[in-house]
Amino acid sequence: MKNLKPxxxxxxxxxxxxxxxxxxxxxxxxxxxxFAFSPSTLTIGQGDSVKWTNSNGSVTHSSASGTAPxxxxxxxxxxxxxxxxxxxxxxxxxxxTYPYFCTFHGGPPFNMVGSLVITNTTVAPxxxxxxxxxxxxxxxxxxxxxxxxxxxxxGGTITNVQFRSGAAVLGSAGAAPFEFTFNSAxxxxxxxxxxxxxxxxxxxxxxxxxxxxxxxxxxxxxxIAGGHxxxxxxxxxxxxxxxxxxxxxxxxxxVGTNVAPSGSFQVTDPSPTNGPIxxxxxxxxx
Length: 286
What we know:
- By secondary structure, the protein is mostly beta strands.
- The protein has 3 domains: 27-119, Cupredoxins -  blue copper proteins (Immunoglobulin-like, Sandwich), CATH 2.60.40; 124-214, Sandwich (Immunoglobulin-like), CATH 2.60.40.10; 218-283, Sandwich (Immunoglobulin-like).
- 0% of the residues lie in helices and 54% in strands.
- It has no helices and 25 strands.
- The protein has strands at residues 18-20, 27-33, 36-38, 41-45, 49-54, 61-65, 77-80, 85-89, 96-101, 113-119, 127-132, 138-140, 143-152, 158-165, 168-173, 178-185, 188-198, 203-205, 209-214, 218-225, 228-234, 240-246, 253-259, 264-272, 279-283.
- The relative contact order is 0.17.
- Residues 1-23 have low confidence and may be disordered.
């Protein structure tokens, strides 16, 4: 029987680019010590949090929004006993400058006051595309597949690119060139994506690249059912197999083409069994 090449089934389905934008959400610390806030002026982004920590051993402090010595304006107001802390989230706060003071020590002689600056910085997502392999590429199993991606970031830095097969993370690269080799990939259908992350906490996922790692089908369990030859084809679910018959191993006639519903399925030759001896083969990429 002549040697058969592994088959190919190309699928051109590509999902659109989707962004998974993660809002920046850092926590900053302001220390209450020696009747002062440190740092006295702090700049944060919208959605960040500030943790005020009283490092004094015996003095109680507070943090109240507003300008001393007037009354607090009610945006936040809490008291920290010695060696305690309190965290405030600034999600939903408008960009601007917010003065605050200690209600116990905001006036003379301590003048314990601070200033919080909230910026309205927009976190832009990165852009990422798989550049190798091309969608629909086929390989013979086992395959070493070199995955490559192009990732860019406007006004920031790409910190990591992950390469995934479905939900499974295959590997990653922390700097350009962004690439990873998937070694000894067994026969199967693969949906590769690349996920790029930037230094601001935002991420984006590339379009899906479908790749097929294929091998010759195995025919087994020949039988006669209802006056017809019946065979079991062992392959890869979702890949296409063409079954052919021959009486001389030279001239081949089609029996049927099937998309494998599972790793093992049956094919029946519609020709009656009372003909000449027949050989069968299953191959791909007709």
